Amino acid sequence: MQREEVQNIVPVMTAKKIAEMIKTGSRTTEILTGSRDLVRYLSDSNLYPIQAKLSEIGAVYDYVLKSVRYTSDPSGVEYVSSPSRIQSSINKLGKAAGDCDDIACIVGAYLYSLGHRVRIVLVSFIPNGEFQHVFIESYVKNLGWLTVDPSTYPHTKKMLSQIKRTQFFEV
Questions:
Q1: Which domain holds residue 147?
Q2: 52: burial class by Cβ within 10 Å (0-12, 13-18, 19+)?
Q3: What is the mean pLDDT of residues 139-161?
Q4: pLDDT for the residue numbered 154
Q5: What CA–CA distance (Å, rounded) separates 46 from 68?
Q6: Residue 49: HSE in the Cβ half-sphere, 13 Å Cα cutoff
Q7: Domain count, the chain
Q8: Which CATH number covers residue 141?
Q9: How many CB atoms lie within 10 A of CB 46?
Q10: What is the pTM (predicted TM-score) of this model?
C-alpha cells in the first residue's frame, strides 16, 4: 500500500494504521537501505550505547527535516503515505511532502528499522478535545521517551508545552 485515504475515522484508527505502516515499512528495501546509509558514517566507534542511539535519532531527525516538506492534507480528507512511498519520492525528486502523520510514518520506520523502540503519540491542544497532531517518540535507556518530531521544528518545545491530552501507541 503506497497511499491510503482514511476518511471520517477517529485519530485512534489513524494511529493504528501508522503503527502498521511503520512495522511493514521498516522491513522494505527502501527503508532498510536508507536507514543504514544514514548511520553508516556516524563516528560512534568510541561512543557508549546511549550516545550511539542518540546519534541515530539525530541523523533520522535531520534527514527527515531536510527531505520532507510539511504540507496539509486536503480539508476533510486524511491521507497517510507509507514510509516506502515517502522514501521513493525523496529518491526520485530529492524531496517529499506530507503532513504530521506522514512524517511520523517515515521517522518511525527509520528508527524501528534501526532497532529503536518507538511509539506514536496523539495529542490535543484542547482539554477533552479531538486529537490534532501526531508524532513519534523513541525510547533511550536511562533517558526515557524522547520526542522526534521534525514537523514542528523550530517550535517543538512550544508545541509540547501546549499539549492538554495525549494517547500513546507503542509499535
A1: 3-170
A2: middle
A3: 96
A4: 95
A5: 31
A6: 7
A7: 1
A8: 3.10.620.30
A9: 7
A10: 0.91
